[in-house]
Write a structure and sequence with these properties.
ATP-binding, about 25% strand, Phosphoribosylformylglycinamidine cyclo-ligase, Phosphoribosyl-aminoimidazole Synthetase, Chain A, domain 2, phosphoribosylamine-glycine ligase activity, single chain, EC 6.3.3.1, alpha+beta, 60s Ribosomal Protein L30, Chain: A, seven-stranded mixed β-sheet
């Protein structure tokens, strides 16, 4: 049977298929002010174009600019946001997971884009998510240059959603941080996490389910409700790390730097991610007694009887970023981090693997990187 395009047609419409384009338009209107607030003088055009543009003529002042890019999501932490009906913090998690990966090579962010997939567009909910993304973008100086909200009825439940994002940054070729700069004797400087960040939530959620705890349960050792702790946003390190580079390793054109590498502690935990920025033949000597693991991690361990080894290979345990620096720059690095509001401490030292006798759990070859290793040993502070 044929249908016509006239008013009163009984044919199938996009709306009857589950896609509400008017709701999408309302979501855009609600988020427009938040997105506009991230725009820097380098942005060309406004919100709503098919593509975002940024003026990069300033890169002509670079000796040899390299573009750095990364993409990521938030993982199953979104399930906590959905369960609590709190959607304005997930955006910071997204920005942190993406932008703090590109600062690891020393790159300054130029732009960020986001993507939200949902079963049904609820304009206010989408606007909340984007408001969180935009606020975090403004904090790291990266314009939210583009985005997409896609409605997927039949593929996702009506109230389900997921978020993803990508960022691009720039770094001088002779200022790139990485394993090739690291040498024996370097100090490992830890920068504190704000909590669980955005990794390991499949484990965390399974533990909470197993324990039968509700998200609104008040937990004395946390000083707040469980759900509020689990939704604590991922700490943003970009501005602090760029500040450390400027203060500790100012660009004098020589390419020499006192900061040698950065490691963003995400999925896989401390040892696995740190080993990715150490060269073959070197080992990071990390003493567990160097810091006290925050209460939320021990709570997860105790509730689920999670082995320490599994906990270490899944969660950050209180360390969100590690700077590998010349030992003479250790104090200045910690001071710069603290000046940015992030507690820092000496985590350990880099050694030649030859002649080094490991005394703990050794991790190497994480995420396909053929590099150095990390020996994490000792006992955590009580």
């Amino acid at each position: 049977m044929r249908t016509t395009g006239t008013t009163g047609s009984t044919g199938i419409t996009y709306a009857s298929a589950g896609v509400d384009t008017e709701a999408g338009d309302r979501a855009v209107e609600l988020m427009k002010a938040s997105v506009s607030a991230t725009m820097t003088p380098a942005v060309v055009g406004g919100v709503g174009g098919f593509a975002g543009m940024v003026d990069v003529s300033g890169l002509r002042d670079y000796r040899r600019p390299l573009l750095a890019t990364s993409t990521d999501g938030v993982g199953t932490k979104v399930a906590i946001a959905q369960a609590l009906g709190v959607h304005d913090t997930i955006g910071q998690d997204l920005v942190g997971m993406v932008v703090d990966d590109i600062v690891v090579v020393g790159a300054r962010p130029l732009l960020m884009t986001d993507y939200i997939a949902c079963g049904r567009v609820v304009p206010e909910r989408v606007a909340d998510i984007v408001r969180g993304v935009a606020k975090a973008c403004a904090a790291v100086g990266a314009p939210l240059l583009g985005g997409e909200t896609a409605e997927h009825p039949g593929l996702m439940a009506p109230d389900d959603y997921d978020v993803a994002g990508a960022a691009t940054g720039v770094v001088e070729a002779d200022r790139v941080l990485g394993a090739e700069r690291v040498r024996a004797g370097d100090a490992l400087i830890a920068m504190a996490s704000s909590g669980l960040h955005s990794n390991g939530y499949s484990l965390v959620r399974r533990v909470i389910e197993h324990a039968g705890w509700s998200l609104d349960r008040e937990v004395p050792e946390l000083g707040r409700a469980l759900g509020a702790e689990l939704l604590e946003p991922t700490r943003l390190y970009t501005a602090a790390c760029l500040g450390i580079l400027e203060r500790v390793s100012p660009d004098d054109g020589s390419g020499e730097m006192s900061v040698h590498a950065l490691s963003h502690i995400t999925g896989g935990g401390l040892a696995a991610n740190l080993s990715r920025v150490l060269p073959t033949g070197l080992v990071g000597d990390v003493d567990r007694s160097a810091w006290t693991v925050p209460p939320v991690f021990d709570l997860v361990r105790a509730l689920g009887e999670v082995p320490w080894g599994d906990l270490e290979s899944t969660l950050n345990l209180g360390v969100g970023m590690v700077a590998v620096v010349d030992p003479e720059a250790a104090d200045a690095t910690m001071a710069a981090s603290r000046a940015a509001g992030i507690e820092a401490w000496v985590l350990g030292t880099v050694h030649d693997a030859a002649g080094y006798a490991p005394s703990g759990r050794v991790v190497a070859g994480a995420k396909g990187v053929d590099g150095g290793s990390v020996d994490i040993h000792g006992q955590y502070r009580a």
